[in-house]
Specification:
Elements lengths: L7 E5 L5 E2 L15 E5 L9 H10 L19 E2 L4 H7 L3 E2 L3 E6 L5 H12 L5 E5 L4 H11 L6 E5 L3 H11 L3 E5 L16 H18 L2 E7 L18 E6 L6 E9 L7 E7 L2 E4 L3 H6 L9 E8 L2 E13 L7 E4 L3 H14 L7 E7 L11 H13 L7 E3 L2 E2 L5 E2 L4 H10 L4 E5 L13 E5 L2 H5 L1
Parallel strand pairs: 6-10, 6-11, 7-8, 7-9, 9-10, 17-18, 19-22, 22-23
Antiparallel strand pairs: 1-2, 1-3, 4-5, 11-12, 12-13, 13-14, 15-16, 16-18, 20-21
Helix pairs in contact: 1-6, 5-6, 8-9
The structure holds thymidine-5'-diphosphate and magnesium ion.
Amino acid sequence: MASGKKKTVFVCSNCGYESQKWVGNCPGCHEWNTLVEETLKSDIKSEAPSAVLSRKIREGGRAKPLSFKSIEGSTEIRISSGMEELDRVLGGGIVRGSMVLVGGDPGIGKSTLLLQVCRNISRKHEVLYVSGEESLSQIKLRAMRIGEFSDSLKVLSETDLDDITEIIRESEPDLVVIDSIQTMFNEDVGAAPGSVSQIRETTAVLLRIAKDLGITIFIIGHVTKEGSVAGPRILEHMVDTVLYFEGDTKGAYRILRGVKNRFGSTDEIGVFEMDEGGLKEVKNPSEYMLSGRPENAGGSVVSCCMEGTRPLLIEIQALVCETAFGFPRRQARGTDINKVNLLMAVLEKRLEMKLASLDAYVNIAGGIKVNEPALDLGIILAIASSYKNAPLGQNVAAFGEVGLSGEVRSVTQTMQRVNEAARLGFDKIFIPYASLKDIKAPEGVKVIGVKNVGDLLK
Ligand code: TYD
Ligand code: MG
């Protein structure tokens, strides 16, 4: 580029991909129309987080390779967030000195969740809550809905990163919450708040502080569809842990899901319910997911999926009806439409059900998204039950993977799933035949092994 001209680059606001030219379809994440032009300032060194860390270790001089044995593995110090659901998703509590990104749609409850965490932790530790979105009185209003707060929780309404870092370095709190990263402004970066370079640089500065001082920092990031504000995905590789808060903003339940975790597994979910007093933990999600289930209705089947270490009962609903158009509609909410199409093809071919000219809608009640093969049997039964207009019975549950010849194949953790179903009063449970030998039926529960969907439906 000619000198004297401002150097600009096009950056994807979804994944952070950089390109010299504008392109409509991002080569990095294949999203459309996400590239935005940003001015580069040559004096900013964007340092990879790993470089920050290793510089700390090398203390000035050049990094030296060390023998693996001589490295001391420090055991991580964890503190409880006071919310079991969150602790589990984090892998057993908040790790000291770690950086956690909490993403989600606006209005889903990120600020509420972290304000509650701040309240719990401030009972024993120093906490700083930095909000660039709300004024102090707005935060106070929200806090009053949630409950009592202790004195060791300090609140700051600020967006200037220099001021924020100065305050953090002076007061050295144990936990800092940044709400939200899209509102923070670093003067050294020319770009506007919310732009890709601004978000990236701000996070890099905060990351350095977290690792230098051993402070835990929670960053809130809004997920946005438009390109004007960059989404939290571009930060995923920098932070230690990424959690996404999902659910229907109009519904009451919220699901917190781990997407990346350097200190634990990412299989776990936390379930919360939003009411007028803030977020409440849902300790018994199966019961919650099944509440409001229709009695003895055709097309409704209860199945069991695993969310991390926890079995979760869900209701699968299917509606099969005559199409009003020439081309039948197929729709799936909460699960994969291709899976539904495949299972319908199995029913069509192996059981001679005439589904080709029918509309089909499959829905996982409760708004949760699951894509486990263990749901196959439940989905097939729901579709068949709706097709034949024959309810399966109120206390029946079913799970198992279905293959292309209609065979029912075994899935993992059969006993846990059976126990969960039995615990909630299901006394007739269909499982893969091959898994029968691995389990012991709970008292009063009839566990039936299924070899093939054909046997079951006949
Ligand atoms: P909020 O935490 O502000 O969402 P985010 O920070 O993710 O944008 O939550 C906003 C919604 O939560 C808002 O629509 C009102 C609702 N809410 C309650 O229902 N009860 C409560 O006690 C609080 C504090 C919020
Ligand atoms: Mg908020």
